[in-house]
């Protein structure tokens, strides 16, 4: 491999790593309204590219002009029409969100219960985030009697790595980003780890997950 070819390969490897890591967002909805959700997603669409410099050269990478909103709540009752019959701004039920975004060409919604954090894991290990994470990562790598979690994980990875169109991925659940406790961060790490392994990019980074959008949303 020539020095020029080696340089090009370095740039491509960086592009894969940077683009993929930045395009997978996470978002919580506790204390938020439907309007807050829409505003946060619009802001993500505005932040559709990143610039990176390598050896003095500047490169701009597109993150994706379409957001795939992946709802990974295991139980969706808490913020639903049944729970808040008189407050439409709290209707985060899957059918409501599917209807809300069905005409939106920039946002695609999918409810994926199989990638939620099962109640058994959450309740048995509620004071042990490291054990929760260990069991959750095992869970999404195997299909169970009721939930095809491994199949859904592989399908999500295929969407995230698709080249045309390029999608931003937004993983949505309830919980505020308490350190080490939320499965949407564990799922994000699992997707990035799979990319590093598939493309032989070395050791996947341990990620910092907390970033504020206009002091209203963390992802």
Task: Count up the domains.
Answer: 1
What is the average per-residue confidence, as pLDDT, rounded to a whole number?
85
Helix percent band: 40-55%
Bulk shape:
globular
Q: Helix-strand pattern, N to C?
A: HEHEEEHEHHHEHEE
Individual helix count: 7
Biggest sheet features: 4 strands, parallel
**Termini, distance in Å?**
40 Å
* Oligomer type: single chain
Strand adjacency order, main sheet: 1-6-4-5
What's the count of strands? 8
Tell me the Rg in angstroms. Answer: 18 Å
Portion in beta strands = 15-25%
Give start-end ranges of low-pLDDT stretches: 210-219
Structural class: alpha/beta
Commentary on this structure:
The protein is of the alpha/beta class. It has one domain (3-202). 40% of the residues lie in helices and 18% in strands. It contains 7 helices and 8 strands; from the N terminus they run αβαβββαβαααβαββ. The chain has helices at residues 3-23, 34-46, 94-101, 119-124, 129-139, 149-161, 183-198; strands spanning 24-28, 49-54, 57-62, 66-71, 107-111, 167-173, 212-213, 217-218. The strands form 3 sheets. It has a 4-stranded parallel β-sheet with strand order 1-6-4-5, sandwiched between helices. A two-stranded antiparallel sheet has the order 2-3. Helix 3 links the parallel strand 4 (66-71) and strand 5 (107-111). Helix 5 packs across helix 7 (183-198). The longest helix is centred in the N-terminal third of the chain and has 21 residues, at 3-23. It is globular and about 55 Å long.
């Amino acid at each position: 491999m020539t020095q020029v070819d080696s340089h090009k390969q370095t740039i491509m490897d960086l592009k894969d790593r940077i683009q993929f890591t930045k395009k997978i967002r996470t978002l919580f909805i506790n204390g938020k309204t439907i309007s807050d959700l829409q505003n946060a997603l619009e802001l993500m669409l505005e932040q559709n590219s990143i610039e990176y410099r390598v050896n003095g050269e500047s490169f701009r990478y597109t993150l994706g002009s379409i957001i795939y909103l992946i709802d990974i709540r295991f139980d969706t009752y808490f913020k639903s029409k049944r729970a808040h019959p008189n407050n439409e701004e709290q209707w985060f039920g899957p059918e409501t969100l599917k209807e809300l975004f069905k005409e939106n060409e920039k946002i695609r919604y999918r409810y994926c219960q199989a990638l939620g954090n099962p109640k058994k894991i959450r309740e048995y290990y509620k004071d042990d985030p490291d054990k929760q994470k260990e069991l959750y990562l095992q869970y999404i790598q195997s299909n169970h009697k009721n939930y095809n979690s491994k199949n859904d994980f592989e399908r999500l990875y295929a969407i995230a790595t698709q080249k045309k169109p390029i999608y931003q991925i937004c993983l949505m659940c309830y919980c505020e980003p308490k350190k080490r406790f939320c499965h949407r961060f564990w799922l994000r790490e699992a997707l990035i780890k799979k990319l590093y392994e598939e493309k032989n990019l070395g050791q996947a980074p341990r990620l910092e997950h907390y970033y504020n959008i206009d002091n209203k949303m963390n992802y």
